[in-house]
From TrEMBL:
The gene is folK. Residues 140-150 have a biased composition (Basic and acidic residues). This is 2-amino-4-hydroxy-6-hydroxymethyldihydropteridine pyrophosphokinase. Pathway: Cofactor biosynthesis; tetrahydrofolate biosynthesis; 2-amino-4-hydroxy-6-hydroxymethyl-7,8-dihydropteridine diphosphate from 7,8-dihydroneopterin triphosphate: step 4/4. InterPro entries: Hppk, Hppk_sf. Residues 140-168 are annotated as: Disordered. Its EC number is 2.7.6.3. Keywords: ATP-binding, Folate biosynthesis, Kinase, Nucleotide-binding, Transferase.
Length: 194
């Protein structure tokens, strides 16, 4: 199984609904074995204009290769009305592969890791939450196998790997990047989900 982190965003229409639908469509796809999502966060557009964004980050395990996953994400975007009239245009749904295993790529179609993720508080804050959730789950599984918070939420957590390689960012690096992003004026707020 491949491990991917996906950035989700929307700033047109019913943004929370678009993100929820995309998460559910990914969760139901036969090539996705597990999907765990962060909370939703609100942020102002960066390098663009328009309404505030709703963002999240999802961890998923998939049998798809990176390019196949990209095509799936683009198909979901199109299904929900995504248009690309110009660079950084407001959008109903934006799904980006942030990380895919430990892969690196300079391919113009799919650059890995995502080339701007380290500058975006709206990616880093949900990623930090997700890292903590997955680490807590791993710790809980080891300390008390009968207590499984993700399992209680309906996730199949038996397949969450114990961290055999370090996360892409250490907690200290992640906090430093978040502070640097916020120093540029980026603000990110957790959204109460309905």
């Amino acid at each position: 199984m491949n491990i991917a982190y996906i950035g989700l965003g929307s700033n047109l229409g019913e943004s929370q609904n678009f993100l929820s639908l995309a998460i559910e469509e990914l969760r139901q796809h036969p090539a996705i074995g597990l999907l765990v999502s962060s909370s939703f966060y609100r942020s102002s557009p960066v390098d663009s204009t328009g309404p505030d964004y709703i963002n999240a980050v999802a961890y998923l395990e998939t049998s798809l290769e990176a390019m196949e996953l990209l095509h799936l994400l683009q198909a979901i975007e199109l299904k929900h009305g995504r248009q690309r009239p110009y660079r950084n245009a407001p959008r109903t749904l934006d799904l980006d592969i942030l990380l895919f295993n430990d892969n690196t790529s300079d391919d113009p179609v799919l650059t890995l890791p995502h080339p701007r993720m380290h500058e975006r508080a709206f990616v880093l804050e949900p990623l930090k939450e997700l890292y903590a959730l997955l680490a807590e789950q791993t710790h809980t599984d080891r300390a008390n196998p009968s207590e499984k918070p993700l399992h209680a939420k309906g996730y199949n957590v038996s397949s969450i790997p114990t961290p055999q390689s370090k996360p892409y960012y250490t907690p200290t690096e992640l906090n430093q990047l978040i502070q640097a992003a916020k120093a540029t004026g980026q603000e990110v707020f957790k959204v109460k989900q309905s």
